[in-house]
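About this split. The held-out portion is used to measure sequence recovery: a designer receives only the structure tokens and must propose an amino acid at every position. Recovery is the fraction of positions where the proposal matches the reference. Here is one held-out target exactly as it appears in the evaluation file.
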């Protein structure tokens, strides 16, 4: 028997006596000119079982079931010759409603010889992904050519680098969309497709031309087909539905190009056609939901919510209370409210979805794990980390039980757990989960994948917080190696990891290395940011810290001046950051023997910073650098009166050596020791 797919067409008109509780049909090969097949077992819960006849027909009787009640059809996995088959349009097969008028409500079900569906999808994936990669390469070459120009401003250069970053992200998401496209196209039954859809598929197959397929499916052509179908009264519905299928295929081809506006226009037209022809409300609800999802992807959250709420109202009216489609729409509405930052409403619908999926899917379904993850993320946004942890744990437990040990979703769960434990301050557990996520991603991702650099960087930060500086440096260098391999030399991700490495070297007290890596980061930021960007102010400030700690006070002062110049230009005159900039340049001037200049900046700091024991201690150090015992002791007294109690800090600070023999200083020590 030739390797063709099979169409199982439930011909509800094939009924000897129309009555509630009956369902009939016929089996066809897909794409074969409607050739029938015998020996396929068809059954349903409460309806018995039957093999298709030599003409491909079957009839099931469902006693006790009423019109509108859902039934689950089960198709056997072999035909009469023992050839293995598999279901293609699983979603349509999952649950069917017994029709009140079977002849007016046919249902199509598609099966394939086992493995053939995936082979077809892989063939389409190869064609579509190659075409997409060619387009992305052209766009990348164009941006890189612009970057090579020497007369670009910092802002223009930054914009182009951001475009490359977005392009790489788009490519990854496009390839994921193409997987869905490929499966969708492989599932189309050409025997019942319109000529337009067939021509579009032919363009893809024979010419490897997705853009040509989109031209075939231009809106104007689809509209002409729609008007033609409306004029043919006898076959209007079939023709109109073929037009809708054309719009659906157009949507699939547009998805990997992220043309959200055109996709939304397609769905809006599908919805208009449905409403004009009074097609079923369930289909309308599906299209409304799909439109909402597209608008959400386009960041049009409020408009998306309008369509999703409308879809929900229809589904709540016409579906059973336990229908999985209700859970899906609650899930989508929860995510949309989350995007609108209305987290309480998002949680309301997240919990509705969760309760329904717990009831109908059972405790170990992957969809339930996804819902737990969404609810957990919403609690994180509300800073309710204990609640977030509970639901991340529920999600993780399911995924550990039902997914492969190297499944990407399992790595995502581990990473989510790590973030939550970090928020809760449990760094050791954070590290445990980061390492679990890393173990999976190292096995399933290429060695230079950006996601690996991100998790290396996260682990580095955790090690630094734990005080394990050498480990932190090791993982930061791994992150840097990947980013150097995959990113443009002026990419912001490179500047960030260079900055992290400089911070680690500072913690290791290797200030020369900190200066080297800090300067690399600063050079990148200077080339891609505007001169007044606060990022440059902060990195310059860190460079000042490194030079100050290595006793290069003139250099430290110059970097602090750069921070102050930007801060005074873009920050409020009483901003805390500006106060910190003034404080540290004041300290460096004092250490450089320029007390009067230092005092000018310390007074500016004093006017911004509210009273605190920390502020008093900075004044104590400043006065100590000037050799003023009285003011130094007075500042320490002020710090103690405001809650300072660290004997260790006093004894370790070398600037206070000149007052160690003072009775007042020793009285401070006695007072603090007595208090401990």
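Reference sequence for scoring:
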């Amino acid at each position: 028997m030739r390797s063709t797919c099979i169409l199982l067409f439930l011909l509800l008109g094939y009924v000897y006596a129309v009555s509630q509780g009956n369902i009939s049909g016929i089996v066809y090969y897909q794409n074969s000119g409607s050739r029938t097949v015998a020996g396929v077992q068809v059954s349903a819960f409460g309806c018995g079982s039957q093999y298709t006849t030599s003409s491909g027909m079957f009839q099931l009787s469902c006693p006790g079931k009423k019109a509108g009640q859902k039934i689950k059809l089960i198709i056997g996995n072999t035909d009469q010759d023992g050839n293995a088959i598999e279901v293609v349009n699983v979603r349509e097969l999952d649950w069917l409603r017994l029709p009140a008028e079977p002849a007016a409500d046919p249902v199509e079900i598609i099966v394939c010889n086992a493995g053939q569906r995936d082979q077809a999808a892989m063939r389409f994936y190869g064609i579509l992904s190659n075409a997409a990669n060619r387009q992305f390469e052209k766009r990348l070459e164009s941006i890189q050519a612009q970057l090579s120009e020497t007369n670009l401003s910092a802002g223009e250069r930054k914009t182009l680098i951001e475009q490359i970053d977005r392009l790489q992200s788009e490519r990854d998401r496009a390839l994921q969309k193409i997987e869905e496209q490929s499966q969708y196209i492989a599932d189309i039954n050409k025997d019942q497709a319109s000529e337009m859809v067939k021509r579009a598929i032919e363009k893809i197959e024979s010419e490897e031309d997705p853009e040509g397929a989109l031209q075939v499916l231009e809106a104007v052509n689809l509209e002409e087909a729609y008007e033609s179908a409306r004029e043919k009264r006898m076959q209007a519905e079939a023709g109109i539905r073929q037009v809708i299928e054309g719009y659906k295929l157009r949507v699939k081809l547009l998805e990997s190009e992220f043309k959200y506006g055109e996709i939304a226009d397609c769905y809006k037209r599908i919805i208009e056609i449905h409403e004009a022809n009074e097609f079923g409300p369930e289909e309308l609800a599906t299209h409304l939901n799909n439109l909402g999802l597209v608008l959400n992807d386009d960041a049009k959250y409020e408009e998306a919510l309008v369509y999703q709420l409308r879809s929900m109202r229809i589904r709540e009216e016409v579906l059973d209370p336990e229908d999985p489609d209700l859970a899906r729409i609650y899930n989508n509405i929860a995510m949309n409210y989350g995007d609108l930052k209305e987290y309480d409403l998002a949680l309301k619908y997240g919990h509705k979805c969760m309760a329904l999926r717990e009831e109908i899917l059972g405790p170990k379904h992957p969809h339930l794990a996804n819902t737990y993850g969404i609810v957990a993320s919403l609690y994180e946004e509300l800073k309710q980390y204990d609640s977030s942890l509970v639901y991340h744990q529920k999600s993780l437990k399911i995924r550990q039980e039902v997914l492969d040990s190297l499944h990407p979703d399992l790595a995502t769960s581990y990473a989510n757990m790590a973030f939550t434990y970090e928020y809760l301050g449990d760094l050791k557990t954070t590290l445990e989960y980061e390492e679990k996520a890393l173990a999976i991603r190292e096995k399933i991702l290429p060695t230079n994948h950006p996601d690996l650099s991100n998790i290396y960087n996260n682990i580095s930060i955790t090690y630094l917080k734990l005080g394990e500086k050498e480990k932190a440096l090791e993982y930061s260098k791994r992150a840097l190696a990947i980013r150097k391999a995959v990113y443009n030399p002026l990419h912001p991700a490179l500047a960030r990891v260079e900055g992290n490495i400089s911070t680690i070297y500072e913690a290791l007290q290797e200030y020369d290395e900190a200066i080297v890596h800090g300067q690399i980061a600063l050079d990148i930021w200077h080339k891609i940011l505007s001169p007044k960007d606060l990022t440059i102010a902060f990195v310059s400030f860190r460079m000042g810290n490194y030079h100050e700690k290595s006793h290069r006070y003139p250099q430290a002062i110059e970097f602090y001046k750069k921070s102050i110049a930007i801060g005074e230009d873009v920050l409020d005159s009483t901003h805390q950051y500006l106060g910190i900039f003034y404080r540290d340049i004041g300290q460096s001037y004092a250490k450089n023997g320029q007390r009067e200049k230092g005092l000018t900046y310390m007074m500016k700091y004093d006017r911004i910073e509210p009273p605190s024991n920390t502020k008093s201690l900075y004044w104590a150090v400043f006065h100590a650098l000037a050799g003023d015992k009285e003011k130094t002791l007075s500042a320490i007294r002020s710090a103690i009166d405001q809650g300072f109690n660290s004997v260790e800090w006093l004894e370790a600070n070398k600037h206070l050596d000149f007052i160690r023999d003072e009775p007042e200083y020793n009285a401070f020590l006695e007072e603090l020791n007595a208090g401990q």
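Annotator remark: The two ends are 90 Å apart (CA to CA).
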